[in-house]
Amino acid sequence: MKSAVTVSEKALEASYHVAKLIACQKKPHTVGETLIKPSCMEIVRHMLGPNEVKEVNKVSLSADTVKRRIHDMSSDILETLIKKLLAAEKFAIIIILILKIKHS
Fold first, then answer.
1. From CA 4, how far away is CA 45, in angstroms rounded?
2. Assign residue 62 a region: left if phi > 0, alpha if psi is -120 to 50, beta otherwise?
3. CB 69 within 8 A of CB 19
4. What is the mean pLDDT of the chain?
5. pLDDT at 94 over 70
6. Is 55 exposed, middle or buried (0-12, 13-18, 19+ CB in 10 A)?
7. Which of residues 6 and 36 earns the better pLDDT score?
8. Could you please report the per-residue DSSP string of 33-76?
9. Using CB atoms within 10 A of its CB, is residue 16 exposed (0-12), middle (13-18) or buried (19+)?
Protein backbone atom coordinates (compact mmCIF):
# COMPACT_ATOMS: atom_id res chain seq x y z
CA MET A 1 0.00 0.00 0.00
CA LYS A 2 1.38 3.38 -1.00
CA SER A 3 1.08 6.25 1.48
CA ALA A 4 -0.03 9.63 0.23
CA VAL A 5 2.21 12.63 0.70
CA THR A 6 0.24 15.70 1.72
CA VAL A 7 0.86 19.12 0.26
CA SER A 8 2.14 20.34 3.61
CA GLU A 9 4.74 17.55 3.65
CA LYS A 10 5.75 18.43 0.11
CA ALA A 11 5.93 22.13 1.04
CA LEU A 12 8.06 21.29 4.09
CA GLU A 13 10.41 19.16 2.01
CA ALA A 14 10.66 21.87 -0.66
CA SER A 15 11.42 24.44 2.03
CA TYR A 16 14.33 22.32 3.30
CA HIS A 17 15.68 21.83 -0.23
CA VAL A 18 15.62 25.55 -0.97
CA ALA A 19 17.21 26.33 2.41
CA LYS A 20 20.01 23.91 1.54
CA LEU A 21 20.54 25.64 -1.80
CA ILE A 22 20.66 29.02 -0.08
CA ALA A 23 23.20 27.73 2.44
CA CYS A 24 25.38 26.07 -0.20
CA GLN A 25 25.48 29.29 -2.21
CA LYS A 26 26.21 31.31 0.96
CA LYS A 27 23.40 33.72 0.15
CA PRO A 28 21.49 35.81 2.71
CA HIS A 29 18.56 33.97 4.26
CA THR A 30 16.22 36.70 2.99
CA VAL A 31 16.77 35.65 -0.64
CA GLY A 32 14.20 32.88 -0.16
CA GLU A 33 11.29 35.22 0.39
CA THR A 34 12.55 38.19 -1.63
CA LEU A 35 13.70 36.45 -4.83
CA ILE A 36 13.30 32.67 -4.95
CA LYS A 37 9.66 32.32 -3.90
CA PRO A 38 8.38 35.24 -6.03
CA SER A 39 10.36 33.88 -9.00
CA CYS A 40 8.95 30.39 -8.56
CA MET A 41 5.44 31.79 -8.29
CA GLU A 42 5.87 33.75 -11.52
CA ILE A 43 7.24 30.75 -13.37
CA VAL A 44 4.40 28.53 -12.16
CA ARG A 45 1.79 31.22 -12.91
CA HIS A 46 2.96 31.57 -16.51
CA MET A 47 3.58 27.90 -17.20
CA LEU A 48 0.89 26.11 -15.17
CA GLY A 49 -1.72 28.66 -14.10
CA PRO A 50 -2.98 30.54 -11.06
CA ASN A 51 -4.32 27.51 -9.18
CA GLU A 52 -0.88 25.91 -9.02
CA VAL A 53 0.59 29.16 -7.65
CA LYS A 54 -1.43 28.54 -4.48
CA GLU A 55 0.54 25.35 -3.92
CA VAL A 56 3.90 27.11 -4.37
CA ASN A 57 2.78 29.80 -1.95
CA LYS A 58 2.51 27.13 0.78
CA VAL A 59 6.32 26.74 0.82
CA SER A 60 7.65 28.76 3.73
CA LEU A 61 10.84 30.62 2.82
CA SER A 62 10.96 33.47 5.33
CA ALA A 63 14.41 34.40 6.62
CA ASP A 64 13.61 32.89 10.03
CA THR A 65 12.37 29.66 8.45
CA VAL A 66 15.45 29.34 6.24
CA LYS A 67 17.69 29.99 9.24
CA ARG A 68 15.85 27.33 11.27
CA ARG A 69 16.01 24.79 8.42
CA ILE A 70 19.76 25.33 7.96
CA HIS A 71 20.27 24.96 11.71
CA ASP A 72 18.20 21.75 11.77
CA MET A 73 20.19 20.26 8.89
CA SER A 74 23.55 21.21 10.41
CA SER A 75 22.51 19.74 13.78
CA ASP A 76 21.49 16.49 12.08
CA ILE A 77 24.82 16.34 10.24
CA LEU A 78 26.76 16.95 13.46
CA GLU A 79 24.81 14.27 15.35
CA THR A 80 25.37 11.77 12.53
CA LEU A 81 29.09 12.57 12.40
CA ILE A 82 29.50 12.17 16.16
CA LYS A 83 27.64 8.84 16.12
CA LYS A 84 29.78 7.53 13.26
CA LEU A 85 33.01 8.68 14.85
CA LEU A 86 32.13 7.13 18.20
CA ALA A 87 31.17 3.91 16.43
CA ALA A 88 34.64 3.75 14.89
CA GLU A 89 36.58 1.80 17.50
CA LYS A 90 40.01 3.33 16.87
CA PHE A 91 38.63 6.86 16.90
CA ALA A 92 36.78 6.23 20.16
CA ILE A 93 39.97 4.92 21.79
CA ILE A 94 41.97 7.94 20.62
CA ILE A 95 39.35 10.34 21.98
CA ILE A 96 39.30 8.54 25.32
CA LEU A 97 43.09 8.77 25.52
CA ILE A 98 43.06 12.47 24.63
CA LEU A 99 40.43 13.16 27.26
CA LYS A 100 42.46 11.27 29.87
CA ILE A 101 45.58 13.26 29.00
CA LYS A 102 43.71 16.59 29.21
CA HIS A 103 42.27 15.70 32.61
CA SER A 104 45.60 14.51 34.05
1. 25
2. beta
3. yes
4. 89
5. yes
6. middle
7. 36
8. IIIIHHHHHHHHHHHT-HHHHHHHHTS---HHHHHHHHHHHHHH
9. middle
